[in-house]
């Protein structure tokens, strides 16, 4: 049973009832309970069927699987601390874990194991909102040591001593600790609350969300021009360095502004991974990249025909190499806006390298080097999607190097104006810009070298409109096949064209990673 002691000045503090987990009592420990005294005095319960059992040693068990159950302890004045416990889910069920900053049995943060995943959740009014999730493996019936560290708005989850998941949320600033289950039976033991972070602190592969940028930094370089002008990404938020898949996936899903410094090449499991609003994902140096999976910047696909209030927005992806994506390397969808994709190197994916679709708009794609890939870039995915795309898909493509990418450079549907300027096209054996299905494209100041069909509005399917002006065509390049009028991008933003005769030299010297 926990006991109350007194500090100088009359402040109360809960002191140790028995040994702290893994060693002698520590000065920064606020609370421990290993249930060896055979009772759970000091714990308040809501729901479930709780009792002391022997599971190797005395432990605290909750056996009901018909609803949520919580047991709380500690004081409501605790602010920045970590709570940890050993947890073993018994049989099938939804989840079990630990809680922090509990205002009540229906208001708290929690770290739970749900199947083979760890989740950080905010529970408010009894409703759980998942802030972040990551795969940790394991199975029900296995003891896991879970620790939830809360520092300001930074939430960090540890599983078996490793920092595996992070989120940022400022809803709850203080409160009690808890043991929680959701439609599951579980056993809990060795509960401890410390003012220090779990274990020796985050390792180099598990840095805290406030870790400063590594040598060389990773702040966003420059500013977006064109339709994405004004995009700030994670500016104003903390910075985190990542070099594992778990860290990266947790970080890109974290709510709120965040700058994510990617170190080295990170291999993702096959799939597309959602990027939340207000993120800067920036590679450190010339060797940072993503392989195996891709980024999805957008809400799940639906048939809504007007932009939702929570559309993903304000995202920057800069200075990263993308290889071997199992689907798209970068996909922007579902009314996402203010997205800047800049100075990346993309090749050898399965589907598109950079696809923009389903009502997304106000996007700039700049200074990227794409190569060794056929299906380069789509803007608008389907001839039948006019309800979402008409009046949107306003995108600027400038100073990109389309290097032996046969087609979709880009292939455009519906968008207007689509502004394609000062790009270098080399050996595109099918088409450069294909402007189809009522789209309006202005293609100006580009350098086309050995491009079979540089600009067309009659490539396939319903025709679009295009204006080609002030471009350079060399080698075996064909002539533009354009007709119609197009809105002028200068009605939306100001820009200055480089001399198209110099574009090849400018772009090959500046596009891609490590050239910021």
From TrEMBL:
It is found in: Secreted. Residues 235-454 form the Pectate lyase domain. Its main location: secreted. SMART domains: Amb_all. Residues 1-27 form the signal peptide. It comes from the Bacteria. SUPFAM superfamilies: Pectin lyase-like (SSF51126). Residues 199-216 have a biased composition (Pro residues). Residues 196-217 are annotated as: Disordered. Keywords: Carbohydrate metabolism, Lyase, Polysaccharide degradation, Secreted, Signal. Belongs to the polysaccharide lyase 1 family. This is Pectate lyase domain-containing protein. It comes from Actinoplanes campanulatus.
């Amino acid at each position: 049973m926990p006991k109350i002691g007194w500090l100088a000045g009359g402040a109360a503090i809960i002191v140790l009832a028995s040994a702290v987990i893994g060693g002698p009592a520590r000065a920064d420990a606020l609370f421990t309970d290993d249930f060896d005294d055979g009772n759970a005095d000091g714990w308040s319960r809501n729901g479930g069927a709780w009792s002391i059992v022997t599971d190797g040693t005395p432990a605290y068990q909750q056996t009901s699987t018909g609803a949520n159950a919580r047991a709380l302890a500690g004081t409501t004045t605790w602010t920045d601390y970590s709570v940890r416990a050993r947890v073993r889910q018994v049989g099938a069920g939804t989840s079990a874990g630990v809680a922090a900053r509990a205002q009540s049995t229906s208001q708290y943060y929690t770290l739970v194991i749900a199947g083979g995943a760890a989740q950080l959740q905010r529970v408010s009014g009894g409703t759980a909102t998942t802030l972040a999730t990551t795969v940790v493996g394991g199975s029900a019936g296995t003891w896991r040591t879970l620790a939830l560290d809360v520092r300001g708005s930074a939430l960090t989850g540890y599983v078996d001593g490793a920092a595996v998941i992070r989120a940022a949320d400022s809803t709850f600033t203080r409160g009690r600790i808890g043991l929680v289950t959701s439609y599951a039976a579980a056993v809990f033991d060795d509960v401890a609350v410390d003012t220090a972070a779990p274990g020796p602190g985050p390792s180099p592969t598990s840095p805290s969300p406030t870790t400063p940028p590594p040598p060389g930094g990773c702040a966003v370089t420059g500013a977006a021009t064109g339709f994405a002008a004004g995009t700030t990404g994670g500016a104003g938020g903390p910075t985190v360095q990542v070099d594992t898949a778990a860290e990266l996936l947790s970080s890109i899903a974290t709510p709120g502004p965040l700058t994510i410094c990617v170190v080295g090449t990170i291999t993702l499991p096959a799939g597309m991974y959602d990027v939340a609003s207000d993120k800067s994902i920036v590679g450190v140096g010339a060797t940072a990249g993503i392989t195996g999976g891709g980024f999805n910047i957008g809400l799940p696909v639906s048939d809504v025909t007007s932009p939702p209030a929570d559309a993903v927005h304000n995202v920057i992806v800069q200075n990263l190499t993308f290889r071997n994506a199992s689907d798209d390397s970068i996909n922007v969808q579902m009314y996402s806006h203010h997205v800047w994709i800049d100075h990346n190197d993309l090749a050898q994916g399965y589907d598109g390298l950079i696809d923009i679709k389903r009502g997304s708009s106000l996007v700039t794609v700049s200074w990227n080097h794409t190569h060794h890939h056929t299906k380069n870039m789509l803007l608008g995915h389907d001839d039948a999607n006019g309800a979402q795309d008409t009046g949107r898909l306003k995108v600027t493509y400038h100073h990109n190097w389309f290097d032996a990418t046969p087609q979709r450079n880009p292939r455009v549907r519906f968008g207007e104006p689509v502004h394609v300027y000062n790009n270098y096209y080399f050996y595109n054996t099918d088409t450069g810009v294909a402007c189809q299905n009522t789209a309006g494209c202005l293609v100006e100041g580009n350098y086309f070298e050995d491009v079979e069909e540089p600009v067309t509005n009659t490539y396939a399917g319903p025709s679009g409109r295009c204006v080609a002006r002030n471009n350079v065509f060399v080698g075996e390049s064909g002539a533009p096949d354009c007709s119609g009028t197009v809105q002028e991008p200068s009605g939306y933003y100001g820009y200055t064209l480089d001399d198209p005769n110099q574009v090849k030299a400018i772009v090959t010297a500046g596009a891609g990673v490590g050239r910021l």
